[in-house]
Amino acid sequence: GAGAVAVTRAYYHAPISEFLRTSASEIIGELTRNHPQELLQQQTQSWLFQIDHLHRVLPDQIGGHIFFEFQIPRVGKRADVILGLEGTVLVIEYKRDSKKHERADIVQVTDYALDLKNFHGGSHHAPIVPILVATGAPSRPIELTEYSDRVFHPILSNDETLPAILGTVRERVQGAPLDVNSWMES
């Protein structure tokens, strides 16, 4: 590569002529050396936490489908978890160890819900419920407020209140059953 640069803007960079003369294994070696392993570790830990949490809070008999890292149309970002429950789409964003529901995080999960509603064909007619799980935040009352487009006001959760929120949503929010495959592909 092009010598040591203080800030790694790219994990590998080189003039094309040099790139063309460099073996794949050397390039892979440089990519690997420059990849922030702690980021990878952190992402793995986040997934493990989310999986463990959802294993604990989702009722055994619950129907529906779960998606991790679902690509949100238009913004190109990925939602942590999406639950398709009996016709309702829940967009769940985790903020691990967060002691409060930060405004930016509320906006983020709301944007994901709106982008699904407006740019994802399978979600046009489905009720969409954004949920922010700030694990260390205080409990809040569950308020289900639906806008005219069937996108709900974001629900603020912590790691203890999610089961009650899921129960309330399943009880009170009705949508036409989702065909998971066509929803996913739309």
Task: Set out the fold topology.
Blueprint: H1 16-21, H2 24-34, H3 37-57, E1 65-71, E2 78-85, E3 88-95, H4 103-119, E4 128-134, E5 155-157, H5 162-172, H6 180-185
Parallel strand pairs: 3-4, 4-5
Antiparallel strand pairs: 1-2, 2-3
Q: What series of H and E elements makes up the topology? A: HHHEEEHEEHH
Overall structural class, as computed from helix and strand content, comes to alpha/beta
* Helical stretch tally: 6
Q: Report Rg.
A: 20 Å
Strand content: 15-25%
Strand order of the largest sheet: 1-2-3-4-5
Task: Sum up the overall morphology in one term.
Answer: globular
Average pLDDT, rounded to a whole number, is 83
Largest sheet: 5 strands, mixed
Ends apart, CA distance between termini: 42 Å
* Percent helix: 25-40%
- pLDDT < 50 runs, ≥5 residues: 1-9
Q: How many distinct beta strands?
A: 5
